[in-house]
Amino acid sequence: MSDNLLRPAIVTGAAGGMGSATARAFSAEGRPLILCDLNEEPLQALADELAASAPVEILAGDISDPAYLEELVELLDEREVGALVHTAGLSPAMAEGPRIVEVNFHATTRLVDALRPRMAKGSCAVLVASIAAHMKTSPEFIAGVEDLIAGIVSPAVEQFSSRSYGGYGFSKRALVRYAEEQAVPFGTHEARIVSLSPGNVDTPMAQLELAQDRGMAEMIEVTPLLRMGHPEEIASVAVFLCSPAASYVTGCDIRVDGGVIPAMASA
Q: Residue 255, SS3?
């Protein structure tokens, strides 16, 4: 058994569709789990479900609160992290643009900064992005992404962060670029980091968006596989990326989108 299977796998957004599927997949491997999400009740229910397969700890709280990250590091104590799958985030229907960028990007960078020194040799961090990261590529957009990563509050950053839908794609594109940039510092720990961009996946969050955005339904209609994805299909890729079978994969984005991006380009 790999040493990293004995180290805790951290799953954020663990009570959500993709997060809970990932937790179940890790549990099936017998990995110890640290499950993170906003509310304790659904976390505890998931922990109770998985407790027979592997040790499970939970930590409820707001991932964007620096104090929460301190609690997470304290919970780890002296243990190294065997895997991190970060699914926590906000969709356009859930908040205004600036809050979406704060949670989806800035909170992610703080999480990675807190856990990078604790990543074990051979471990991997998977940051869940979105195909929205691949839908806008104007020079102004790309420049804004680079400014956001650099911590520059430029007019482009303010423009693309101002609205919910724009802020969502902007934050996810920045997350993809951030994972690329983090390959070198992760490599100094002999660890890996990747982003994973799901397409339209059948989760409660996606159903909320589908009820409000006709464009999402149109995307599903042109998806070559002619359906939404399943949370388990995203989880299986995340778990693979955290396995020794993916030991030479780092600093890149993996699209799991049913082919919708090339289909939209063709259309």
A: strand
